[in-house]
Design brief:
This protein has 20 helices and eleven strands. It is of the alpha+beta class. Keywords: Endoplasmic reticulum, Heme, Iron, Membrane, Metal-binding, Microsome, Monooxygenase, Oxidoreductase.
Length: about 500
């Protein structure tokens, strides 16, 4: 018995030594590093997330300043935290061919919805990105704008019915966001403005809510990708996948049967699907090699629809809700925004595409909102080809990169008094002084957000529609200051943002 106990202890000790054996990697490579401990690496917060995830990275960002980059461990996975704007520019743009991958782990190919443009590997990503980009040009946005206006007009009646009431502002604007995305991208009239319990609303609201088991899954993918592939770990629930795939199949069948063409996102996917393969007519401009052709299956189509829906839903509804919170607690800024909206709409005789683009102060307010509350507090990249930086540090193939968007946006070196909501930072005269690659709400470079124009337009339409009908004010249920929740993936409030809608003065 004693021999068995001794052998068991030896095995445990050897496993422990193997687990921590990587923790001297950064010291060997001569790169500054944040200390790591068994079993979580840099911090237990990686798993437990007792607070907003960006706060831990911000503490490391400050503690290891002014180093341009430093190493850390998530469990036993090494990562490089890059805080220098010039290095960030090198990674996202200048030497993009070395950092084309976004994810350092791969989910199972049987997890269909994870095979989307955000997480796809470089070959499929490049081919799809080039083909899908025409959907999001300014010309396409202008052509779609009447659909935005139709959704906004339906939203008017809901706002009027809520005047005098305290409302969960994200739930309110999320109804308009959902209708716009479904109408403009997929040709679906789901009317969540009047029927808020639609299944797509539930899916959108839960997409970024992480349970403990979800965090464990991601840690498995990070720390043990080979094991994760064998057990076919998935990021999205099977029932969600089944629902989205069937929705795309049914919509495609309906359009084919009734010969319907809408020139929307789904139409472009259908055209690519009919062609059979993607990438066979392309030349990779970066690697100067042919892209490997691949078939655009129903599953891949559903994945693109899914990521466009949840990204558009979460980003736009979050930006609007944070923006309205700041306008509620900064009434002078709200007054100026509403004055600009009224004057420009009167000038154009209604809400037009040109009118929206002339609202310069509204654009400044939204830009400042995205600075203070970036939807993605961290950007991730994966090095595929080694490169030596101008600081002498070498980034090796296989290194995972973290870019601390939250910390950059709240660094007083780049944004004095960063906790103050100050739209003047983004005035025409001040915008030019912002240091490049310190403002990254949509990322930068070839893998920046493809739907940026769409997201900005629906955000502006939502804010314009609400502020034309009402003023937002704090109420007894409004949390001041705002407390952010423990989500590791996105910037979200801990509790619902509750504001009062009052009639225009």
């Amino acid at each position: 018995m004693w021999l068995a106990i001794a052998l068991s202890l030896l095995v445990v000790w050897l496993l422990y030594k193997y687990y921590i054996s990587v923790y001297d990697l950064w010291k060997k490579r001569g790169i500054p590093y944040y200390p790591s401990k068994f079993p979580f690496g840099c911090s237990h917060e990686i798993l437990t997330h007792p607070r907003f995830g960006a706060y831990l990275h911000d503490e490391m960002y400050k503690k290891l300043a002014p180093n341009p980059m430093f190493g850390l461990f998530v469990m036993r996975v090494p990562m490089l935290h890059v805080r220098d704007p010039e290095l960030i520019q090198l990674i996202l743009t200048k030497e993009f061919s070395h950092f084309r991958e976004r994810m350092f782990f791969k989910s199972s190919e049987k997890d269909l919805l994870s095979q989307n443009l955000f997480g796809l590997g470089s070959e499929k990503w490049r081919a799809l990105r080039v083909k899908l980009t025409p959907t999001f040009t300014s010309g396409k946005m202008k052509a779609m704008f009447p659909l935005f206006v139709n959704c906004a007009e339906a939203f008017d009646s809901l706002i009027i019915s809520k005047i005098g009431s305290n409302v969960d502002i994200k739930d309110l604007v999320g109804r308009l966001t959902t209708d716009i995305i479904c109408c403009c991208a997929f040709g679906l009239d789901i009317n969540t403005i009047q029927e808020p319990d639609h299944e797509l609303r539930r899916i959108g609201a839960q997409a970024f809510q992480m349970r403990f088991i979800d965090r464990v899954k991601i840690l498995i993918l990070q720390a043990m990708p080979k094991i994760a592939n064998k057990i076919e770990a998935r990021l999205s629930p099977k029932e969600t996948e089944d629902y989205i795939v069937k929705l795309v199949e049914d919509t495609m069948e309906y359009r084919k049967k009734n010969n319907i063409k809408r020139n929307d996102f789904l139409d472009l996917l259908i055209q690519l699907n009919n062609k059979g393969t993607i990438g066979d007519d392309m030349k990779d401009e970066i690697e100067e090699q042919k892209c490997q052709p691949f078939e655009l299956t129903i599953g891949l189509m559903a994945a693109q629809c899914f990521v466009f829906f949840i990204a558009g839903f979460e980003t736009s509804s979050s930006v609007q809700s944070f923006c309205l919170y700041e306008l509620a607690v900064n009434q002078d800024i709200q007054t100026r925004v509403r004055k600009e909206i009224d004057e420009i709409i009167e000038k154009h005789g209604g809400l037009t595409y040109q009118a929206v683009h002339e609202m310069e102060y509204l654009d400044m307010v939204i830009s400042e909102t995205m600075r203070k509350y970036p939807t993605l507090p961290l950007l991730m990249r994966y090095c595929t080809k080694s490169i030596t930086t101008r600081y002498g540090y070498k980034i090796e193939a296989g290194d995972s990169i973290l870019i601390p968007v939250w910390s950059l946006h709240h660094d007083p070196e780049y944004y004095p008094d960063p906790e103050k909501f100050n739209p003047e930072r983004f005035s025409e005269q001040n915008r030019e002084s912002i240091k490049p690659y310190t403002y990254l709400p949509f990322g930068e470079g070839p893998r920046m957000c493809i739907g940026m124009r769409f997201g900005q337009l629906q955000t502006k339409v939502g804010l314009i529609t609400l502020l034309r009908k009402s003023r937002v004010e704090p109420c007894a249920a409004t949390k001041i200051p705002l407390v952010l929740g423990p989500s590791p993936m996105i910037t979200a409030p801990k509790d619902p943002i509750v504001l009062k809608l009052v009639p225009q003065s």
